[in-house]
UniProtKB/TrEMBL annotation:
GO terms, molecular function: acyltransferase activity, transferring groups other than amino-acyl groups
Organism phylogeny: Bacteria, Bacillati, Actinomycetota, Actinomycetes, Micromonosporales
InterPro entries: Acyl_CoA_acyltransferase (IPR016181), GNAT_dom (IPR000182), MshD_Acetyltransferase (IPR050276), Sper_AcTfrase_N (IPR027455)
Domain N-acetyltransferase: 5-151
Pfam families tied to this protein: Acetyltransf_1
Domain of life: Bacteria
PANTHER family membership: L-AMINO ACID N-ACETYLTRANSFERASE (PTHR43617)
Annotated Gene3D superfamilies: 3.40.630.30, The crystal structure of the spermine/spermidine acetyltransferase from enterococcus faecali (1.10.287.900)
UniProt protein name: Putative GCN5-related N-acetyltransferase
């Protein structure tokens, strides 16, 4: 088998591995540390944290949340998304994003996915645009809002 990418729940058994994942130093200003993201998932009732694993090895992290808690049918957000620096450059980001979109479609049953990106994060903007996300013209806390339709 091999090369299987999955999104796993963060548990006490994999917590340390999750919080030890880090992006390249030049990306650190664009992505919050996973420990911060896990804290947000804990206090957001509808937050869903997932560890991205390749053949059982943690390689990344994603945090989901409804776009609007009062109207979850509006869509779902990818609030945090990262691949550890040791695993970048192997196409895992594209695969993990595809898995995240599949997870939203399966578990949330919505058509709209939203995320936001720092305007200076040129690589991330190109990455998300290549995955079918388009800018909405909205800005959220200084970040550009992008959306994509799943179906």
């Amino acid at each position: 088998m091999g090369d299987v990418l999955t999104l796993e729940s963060v548990t006490p058994d994999n917590y340390d591995a999750c919080v030890s994942l880090e992006v390249h130093p030049e990306q650190a200003g664009f992505v919050a540390p996973n420990v911060d993201s896990l804290a947000r998932a804990y206090v957001w009732p509808d937050g869903e944290a997932r560890l991205v694993c390749l053949d059982g090895t943690p390689v990344g992290f994603v945090l989901f949340h409804p776009i609007d808690e009062k109207a979850p049918e509006r869509g779902h957000s990818i609030v945090r998304f990262m691949i550890d620096q040791r695993f970048q450059g192997r196409g895992l980001g594209r695969r993990a994003l595809a898995a995240a979109l599949d997870w939203i479609a399966e578990h949330q049953r919505v058509d709209t996915v939203q995320l936001s990106v720092e305007p200076d994060n040129v690589k991330a903007l190109a990455f998300y645009r290549a995955a079918g996300f388009t800018e909405t013209g909205e800005v959220d806390e200084g970040e550009l809002v992008l959306r994509r339709t799943l179906r």
